[in-house]
Amino acid sequence: MRTQQTYQQKTAETKHDWYIVDAAGQRLGTLAVRIAKALSGKHKPTWTPHIDDGDHVVVINAEKIELGGDKWEQKTYYRHSGYPGGLSSETAKEVLAKHPERLIERAVRGMLPTNRMRDVQLTRLAVYAGAAHPHEPQKPAPLF
Hints:
Layout: E1 18-22, H1 28-40, E2 56-60, H2 71-74, E3 76-80, E4 87-91, H3 92-98, H4 100-111, H5 117-122, E5 125-127, E6 141-142
Parallel strand pairs: 1-2, 1-6, 2-5
Antiparallel strand pairs: 3-4
């Protein structure tokens, strides 16, 4: 009698592909979920929890992202300097005006699991406000 073996991917077998995503007219949450899935490698049939098998994702047109309803004014991002009274806050509209890339980066960061691989996976994310990007030599394919 023969038993079936569960496939476990090795680190040497990993291959990081390149994908491009156009964020124009897309909802922030839906886009962040899809990007996080590609960065973690969960879209591949060879996904293994303890192996970093994710892909590179290039996001263009981050300035044309959409939020539903009144979230441009209601969604607030907080950060603290570490000093007393050092709490700063800004709305999504203010973040979009200054740094549109940070909206997508922060949303994707929140979608990834909080473990040692999160920072490694985030290094493979590149977000650009406009349509131009320096990753043409890698020939990124459309993610969806």
